Amino acid sequence: MTLHRLIHLCAAALASAALAVTLWQGLDDRGVALAFGVFVVVGELTRWTGAPPREAAPLGAAGALAYALLGQDAGRATGHGAAQVVAVVLAASLVGCVPHLARGRRGTADHLARRVLTVGFAAVCFQPLYNRGVFDAWIGPAYALLLLALLALTALCDAVLAAAAAHSRTGWPFGPLLRDELRGLLGIGSAVCATGAVTALAVAVVGLWALPVFCLPLFLVQLAYRRYAAVRTTYRQTIASLARATEVAGYTPAGHARRVAALSRAVGRDLGLTEPELTVLEHAALMHDIGQLSLVDPVPDGATAHLPATEQRRIALLGGAVVRQTGVDPAVAVVVERQADPCGEQPLAARIVRAVNAYEERARGAGPGGALTALEELRLGTADDYAPEVVESLARALARESDPARGWVTHG
User: Fold this and answer.
1) CA 311 to CA 96: how far, in whole Å?
2) Alpha helix positions (H), 171-293
3) What is the pLDDT of residue 408?
4) Looking at residue 405, what is its pLDDT?
5) pLDDT value for 23
6) Dist CA 122 CA 89 (whole Å)
7) Under DSSP, is residue 33 helix (H, G, I), strand (E, B) or coil?
């Protein structure tokens, strides 16, 4: 059994137990449960399936966490426990996910499993101790800091779950995946935690009217993030269009840049590059052949790997100059310029682009067995031309590509 399936089973077991306990004991504070349930439903209805999981439904996450850490309603102690928190959040999340399921959107099972486990963790840490009066001595700022500390632990738990599930599903290294998840917490994740804590504190003082008031800022943050993501998507589409110039002009085969970019990103992920580094790598891989536009006579099939080293460097420098004129991140131009440098002097991203490009050129149209032959040729060239760690990472990425359960995803 994979870790990914184990996480789903644990979430299903927790959800089943919470529903059973809630049905047996009945629903306490039904008005509060209904209000927070509606909050979570609205958050799920506005879930953005194109975003990373941690950023997909910030409103739903904040409402669920606020309910898990709720101790009072307008100065009156609430009576719900951890089981009711999980049951209400699960029911509301399921209702909010119905439109997404009807449209055939993927990732709903992973999303629900993480929501149940993280909310269950927060509720189990807070509700039993609060109901026993353990936190009665925590007053004012100390109580707010307590909630923030519990939310920080919950966010860490969610990051570990997300990284573990991705590692089990794709085989990518766990450390870099966890690092990216933790880095993501500094963005909208911190806003979710802050909104959850502030909402729980506000409801305890002024009642349920605090819900629409304190969810509005996070909703505006979500809209702003969507606009930012749309700009980034347009930016990448512009780069992809520029990369196709060599294909339209007949210098490189159709789809070559896209294939090199997808496989380069998979190799970079395997080697532990961060998300910003992967973005630079992907953009450089898309534009790695743009220097060929300066050639009077196109290279047959655009196969620059077989050219003399001096000619490869000239094309790479011309490509870097073109990239700098487009206004793309200067780091992308550096990778494009240095892809033909001696292997030992190249940055890691340039080594990746060079090896992947050479592999794609050798394997293209070689028929059955061509991929293995191309990979073996790269291994024989690791002494001078290609970094051994990059070639071995490429082999692992290709192995995942051939495994449907662990295939790397093409971008573009």
Assistant:
1) 58
2) 174-184, 190-206, 210-243, 245-248, 256-270, 275-286
3) 42
4) 45
5) 92
6) 12
7) helix
* Residue with tokens 């009077």, as numbered in its chain: 296
Could you tell me if 96 and 232 are in contact, meaning their C-beta atoms sit under 8 angstroms apart?
Answer: no
- Decide: 141 and 86 in contact? Cβ < 8 Å: no
Q: For residue 335, how far is the Cα from the chain centroid?
A: 24
Query: Is this structure's pTM higher than 0.70?
Result: yes
The residue type of 277 is E
Is there a contact between 228 and 51 (Cβ–Cβ < 8 Å)? Answer: no
Question: What local confidence, expressed as pLDDT, does residue 369 receive?
Answer: 66
Contact 323, 314 (CB under 8 A): no
Partners of 73 in beta bridges: 76
Residue by residue, DSSP assigns 272-321 as T--HHHHHHHHHHHHTTTGGGGG-SSPPGGG-GGGS-HHHHHHHHHHHHH
Report the helix count and the strand count for the chain, using DSSP H and E. 18, 2
CA 317, CA 324: separation in Å to the nearest integer?
11
Q: Would you tell me how many other CB atoms lie within 10 Å of the CB of residue 220?
A: 10
- Judged against a pLDDT cut of 60, whether residue 214 lies above it is answered with yes
Q: What is the pLDDT of residues 323-346, one digit of tens each?
A: 888 778 888 888 888 888 887 888
114-143 pLDDT per residue, tens: 889 999 999 999 999 888 888 877 777 888
CB-based contact 30:83 (threshold 8 Å): no
Neighbours of 406 (CB within 10 A): 15
297 vs 320, residue with greater confidence: 320
How far does CA 85 lie from the centroid of its chain?
27
User: Which among 251, 256, 368, 334 is positioned nearest to 298, based on CA atoms?
Assistant: 251
**Long-range contacts of 352-355, Cβ-Cβ distance < 8 Å, separation of 24 or more:** 352/264, 352/267, 352/268, 352/271, 352/281, 352/285, 352/390, 353/260, 353/264, 353/281, 353/284, 353/285, 353/288, 354/385, 354/386, 355/267, 355/386, 355/387, 355/390, 355/391, 355/394
**Contact present, 111 and 39 (Cβ < 8 Å):** no
Q: Which residues of 85-118 are buried (b: 16+ CB within 10 A; e: fewer)?
A: bbbbbbbbbeebbeebeeeeeeebebbbbbbbbb
DSSP 8-state code for residue 77? E
